[in-house]
Amino acid sequence: MRDFEILFDNAEASPIEDQAYRRYGGLGFPSAPADRPWIYSNFVQSLDGIVSFLGSYPSGSDIAQSEEDRWLMDLLRAHADAVLVGTNTLVEETITRGVERRGPVFRIMDDELRGLRRRLGRGREKNIFVTGTASIDLGSYRAFDGEHVDALVVTTKTGAEKLRGKTSHGHVPVIVAGDGPLVDLPEMAGILRRDFGVAYLLCEGGPTLYGYMSRAGLIDEKFLTISPIEVGQAIPPEQGLSSAGTSGPARLRPTSFTAPGFTKDTAPRWTWLSSRKVGDHEFNRYRRQR
């Protein structure tokens, strides 16, 4: 694997000196707020802003086609107390990989970065799955087994009642945030900080969860890999349509923000904090202006 070439970096210094940073350079974060975690996201997109081919190739790795991007994901996970994932992402990747495999477990794969996580004092890895409808059976997914990573579920009051009636995974904590059809994301963030000690939270999406998090003003930073490919938003006839979606076949591929957007007056601005490159891939970091 190649080293990252630093084009510029105006972010904080690494919290510790460690050989694990040699490939990327320093990586640090500001102090977390007292009432919620410091929340940063990570996406890879094509030159035209697409984050998934959908169909048989729905994951970000199919867009990235880069082992350095996969390694960076582990580096960012190493610094997070927990990783936030929408259940749509889990369901789609499970369908693609084969239901018999019971889906992915979102975890750090690089041994050196697992060691860095321990030295940073982050503790056991945690995945937090967000679902408003709670329409999944936790027992159908390896991600909730707790073998490698602890799992938590955030849902609404109605969703929690559904889960109590159908899951065999009683060891998975269920966090209730909101009485309506959607999870109350600010309330969720407060609970994670206050009751679970999550000071740094990595949002890995998907695009719908990220969009609502951004609309709620909860995304402080975003790491964005630009892959040197052009994809197109409309699915071409030769690929066919995706059947993994929950509301019927998708005809348009998603961008990183798949939620109601902003107006000209409310659109947030971001500071370009750092940039690196490996070959023709660009690795950028942005911080939201408050």
In short:
Helices cover 23% and strands 20% of the residues.
General description of the model:
- There is one protein chain.
- The protein has helices at residues 60-64, 67-78, 87-97, 111-119, 157-166, 185-196, 207-215; strands spanning 5-9, 38-45, 82-86, 126-130, 150-155, 174-176, 200-203, 221-226, 270-278, 281-288.
- The chain is an alpha/beta fold and 290 residues long.
- The chain has a single domain (35-234, 243-288), classed as Dihydrofolate Reductase, subunit A, CATH 3.40.430.10.
- A hairpin with a 2-residue loop joins strand 9 (270-278) and strand 10 (281-288).
- The protein is globular, with a radius of gyration of 18 Å.
- The mean pLDDT is 92.
By CATH's scheme, which homologous superfamily applies? Answer: Dihydrofolate Reductase, subunit A
CA radius of gyration: 18 Å
| Biggest sheet statistics | 10 strands, mixed
According to CATH, the fold-level topology is Dihydrofolate Reductase, subunit A
Gross CATH architecture: 3-Layer(aba) Sandwich
Subunit organisation of the chains? single chain
- Helix tally equals 7
| Percent helix | 10-25%
